[in-house]
Amino acid sequence: MEALRPRIEQIANDLLDAWETEDEVDVIDTFAYPLPITVICELLGVPERDREEVRNLTAELLAPATMAEAYGRFAMYVQRLVDTKEPGDDVITELRDEPNLVNTLVLLITRS
């Protein structure tokens, strides 16, 4: 975990730097929400181009009205990612053969 500290600090600093040009800042929307989901996406190995999709699916997973449909789309996304992702130094690579990988990732992401 200590090895992750510099990258997490960089992500936090990048989020805070964006505040410099703003007159008002919503701390939840611009820091408290994006920080953990960004860190988790990096740990998992989610490509940067997919992170907005993951953020949107996460929000839908937490809303009762869209939960079931979002879970299906999220499960399809995770399966596609597992099938096509190049191996790397990330959680998905390590857990690629885990039979409950989709459920594990849904829990990890929605609990952030």
From TrEMBL:
SUPFAM superfamilies: Cytochrome P450. InterPro entries: Cyt_P450_B (IPR002397), Cyt_P450_sf (IPR036396). It comes from the Bacteria. PANTHER family: CYTOCHROME P450 YJIB-RELATED, P450, PUTATIVE (EUROFUNG)-RELATED. Belongs to the cytochrome P450 family. This is Uncharacterized protein.
